[in-house]
């Protein structure tokens, strides 16, 4: 029989994991040895566990399989909590594998290093932010536990937790037999689909709104086909920006309520039926709506449930629902006036000696995409994410709902580890949190392009509270740091320099490129300016 560590690694691979991110410690050293020597999955080590979680999360978002984060007991695992909380909020299936003391150590009578309150505090903390957990302390039951937990991660598209005591690594165990996916009840599915198609047939101005679950469950192509067949306009949410990047004919734009393109806002707010597929009903997605959500004109399929008006169908996997809708739908002509409402993204930046405004960065990137093809992106939270709304609809991983800073750079490294070359958008505040992780690119031959929005400011906070001086940050000259950690940095202050630096970055392969864009304090992208104005007036409306 194989060793339990091999059993686990093979099961991860068989359930869709493609790589491992981690940081070792004594409680996982034996497991890391097996990871390295077995070569079942490639491993990338980073510098700080929050980055491990972000990288694993982003890799899962991009390849649609499982993300894997391997960390040591306590000090390592607790460092991962925020990233895993974000993955939970944004429905990303990250498998946390945390080392733990062996059976004898647990009863030694000593407090163990890295232990917080009790030896099981780590498990208790992760129970709150994962959808399934197992402690692999018994080789007889471990394979079945692994099968159950990994199926949960895939079916719920949420993080899970596996605790691996260090004395279990070499213990023999049976291989894991994957469990079959749980399908929808066919009668319930039939009824649900008839009801949805009936509602669409009666609607005069129906629209589809999509969000991240459609990528998590691998149904983007099928939804694009369904939208074409039903002739329905389709928009993404803010969180869902970058979805259906291969279907420009289908995506009208991104719904940003009062902050967005008025034609797209009208498409959603004047609709008499909104078919929400895989949508998170979060404030960042909908708080800027000019109209309160009305269940009577909404169908919501998310988290394996379908809510129609005031009733709910449970245990409805999104894939089963989309297949059944496609089977039974009859083609419908698209109303000509509604399909034409498409977002156009700015192009043609004048490469002059004027200072750079945030929205200029979007224009420069669109021009660059026109010359070299679109790149997949990651973005941090900050004005860079709002600027991303002015860039073509290219694949994007960003914390649009959880809004945790520090995601952008390590997420980009996670995407790069999947074999893609990402464009990373990040603010200087967020870069201060996790930017150092770029120093790990050289070891793995990764060459992401980083566009750093350096406004020497926590600008997103300043827009809400301009009087506070604590929002002023120092100028750290980030481009100068790049060389010493294995990359090439360029600092740009004019539009001509920006265009030229981006061009050089695209051409440069084999090391990371950091384009540090100097921006004036107090100047945001056009989208963030509208977003803040909308947010403030929504807050006033609620207060009044
Ligand atoms: N800490 C975390 C982990 N996440 C957060 N969202 C915050 C604090 C609060 N916060 C939101 S935006 C922001 C802060 C501190 C400032 C971001 O600054 P920067 O990355 O420079 O981007 P900018 O706002 O200047 O565009």
What can you see in these coordinates?
The chain has a seven-stranded mixed β-sheet, with helices on both faces. Helix 1 packs parallel to helix 8, helix 3 runs parallel beside helix 5 and helix 9 (186-202) crosses helix 14 (318-328). It contains 24 helices and 19 strands. The N and C termini lie far apart (68 Å). With 544 residues, it is α/β, with parallel strands linked by helices. Strand 12 (305-308) and strand 13 (311-313) form a beta hairpin. Bound molecules: thiamine diphosphate. Residues 380-383, 403-406, 427-430, 453, 455, 457-461 line the site of thiamine diphosphate.
Sheet with the most strands, sense and barrel status: 7 strands, mixed
Name the poorly predicted regions.
Answer: none
Backbone structural class = alpha/beta
Residue share in helices? 40-55%
Report the β-strand fraction as a percent range.
15-25%
What's the β-strand tally?
Answer: 19
Tell the overall outline. globular
Distance between the termini: 68 Å
Q: Provide the list of bound ligands, each named once.
A: thiamine diphosphate
- Mean residue pLDDT: 94
Number of helices: 24
**Radius of gyration from the alpha-carbon trace, in angstroms:** 24 Å
For the largest beta sheet, what order do the strands appear in spatially?
9-8-7-10-11-12-13
Keyphrases for this structure?
19 strands; 544 residues; six-stranded parallel sheet; binds thiamine diphosphate; alpha/beta; single chain; 24 helices; seven-stranded mixed sheet; globular
What order do the helices and strands come in, and which of them pair?
Blueprint: H1 4-14, E1 20-22, H2 29-38, E2 43-45, H3 49-63, E3 67-71, H4 75-78, H5 81-89, E4 94-100, H6 103-106, H7 121-127, E5 133-135, H8 142-156, E6 160-165, H9 186-202, E7 206-210, H10 213-216, H11 220-230, E8 234-236, E9 251-254, H12 262-269, E10 273-277, H13 283-286, E11 298-302, E12 305-308, E13 311-313, H14 318-328, H15 336-339, H16 358-372, E14 377-379, H17 383-388, E15 396-397, H18 408-417, E16 423-427, H19 428-434, H20 441-444, E17 449-454, H21 459-464, H22 478-484, E18 488-492, H23 495-507, E19 513-518, H24 526-543
Parallel strand pairs: 1-2, 1-3, 3-4, 4-6, 5-6, 7-8, 7-10, 8-9, 10-11, 14-15, 14-16, 16-17, 17-19, 18-19
Antiparallel strand pairs: 11-12, 12-13
Helix pairs in contact: 1-8, 3-5, 3-18, 9-14, 11-14, 16-23
Bound molecules: thiamine diphosphate (TPP).
Thiamine diphosphate binds next to helix 19 and helix 21.
């Amino acid at each position: 029989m194989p060793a339990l560590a091999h059993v686990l690694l093979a099961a991860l691979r068989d359930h869709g994991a493609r790589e491992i991110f981690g940081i070792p410690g004594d409680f996982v050293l034996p497991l890391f040895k097996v990871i390295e020597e077995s070569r079942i999955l490639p491993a990338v080590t980073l510098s700080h566990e929050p980055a491990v979680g972000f990288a694993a999360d982003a890799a899962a978002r991009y390849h649609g399989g499982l993300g894997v984060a391997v960390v040591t007991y306590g000090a390592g695992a607790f460092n991962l909590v925020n990233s895993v909380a974000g993955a939970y909020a944004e429905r990303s299936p990250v498998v946390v594998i945390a080392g733990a003391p062996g059976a004898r150590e647990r009863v030694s009578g000593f407090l163990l290093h890295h232990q917080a309150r009790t030896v099981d505090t780590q498990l208790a903390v992760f129970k709150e932010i994962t959808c399934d957990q197992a402690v692999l302390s018994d080789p007889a039951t471990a394979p079945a536990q692994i099968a159950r937990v990994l199926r949960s991660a895939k079916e719920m598209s949420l993080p899970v937790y596996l605790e691996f005591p260090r004395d279990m690594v070499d213990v023999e165990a049976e291989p894991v037999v994957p469990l079959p996916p749980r399908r929808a009840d066919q009668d319930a599915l039939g009824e649900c689909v008839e009801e949805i198609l009936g509602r669409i047939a009666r609607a005069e101005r129906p629209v589809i709104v999509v969000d991240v679950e459609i990528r998590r469950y691998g149904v983007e192509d099928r939804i694009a086909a369904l939208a074409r067949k039903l002739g329905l306009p389709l928009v993404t949410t803010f969180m869902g920006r970058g979805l259906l990047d291969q279907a420009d004919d289908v995506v009208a734009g991104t719904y940003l309520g009062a902050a967005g393109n008025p034609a797209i806002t009208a498409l959603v707010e004047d609709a008499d039926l909104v078919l929400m597929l895989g949508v998170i009903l979060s404030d960042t997605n909908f708080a800027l709506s000019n109209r309160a959500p009305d269940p009577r004109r909404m169908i919501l399929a998310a988290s394996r449930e379908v809510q129609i008006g005031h009733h709910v169908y449970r245990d409805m996997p999104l894939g089963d629902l989309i297949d059944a809708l496609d089977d039974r739908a009859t083609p419908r002509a698209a109303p000509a006036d509604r399909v034409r409402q498409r977002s156009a993204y700015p192009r043609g930046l004048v490469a002059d000696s004027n200072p750079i405004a945030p929205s200029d960065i979007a224009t420069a990137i669109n021009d660059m995409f026109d010359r070299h093809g679109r790149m997949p992106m990651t973005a941090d939270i900050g004005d860079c994410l709002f600027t991303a709304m002015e860039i073509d609809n290219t694949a994007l991983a960003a914390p649009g709902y959880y809004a945790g800073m520090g995601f952008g750079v390590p997420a980009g490294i996670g995407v790069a580890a999947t074999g893609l070359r990402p464009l990373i958008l990040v603010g200087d505040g967020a870069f201060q949190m996790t930017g150092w992780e770029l120093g790990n690119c050289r070891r793995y031959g990764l060459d992401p392009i980083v566009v750093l929005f350096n406004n020497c400011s926590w600008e997103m906070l300043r827009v809400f509270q301009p009087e506070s001086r604590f929002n002023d940050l120092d100028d750290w000259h980030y481009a100068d740091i790049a060389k010493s950690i294995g990359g090439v940095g360029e600092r740009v202050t004019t539009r001509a320099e920006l265009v030229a630096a981006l061009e050089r970055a695209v051409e440069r392969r084999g090391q990371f490129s950091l384009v540090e864009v100097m921006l004036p304090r107090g100047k945001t992208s056009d989208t963030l300016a509208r977003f803040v104005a909308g947010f403030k007036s929504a807050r006033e409306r609620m207060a009044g």
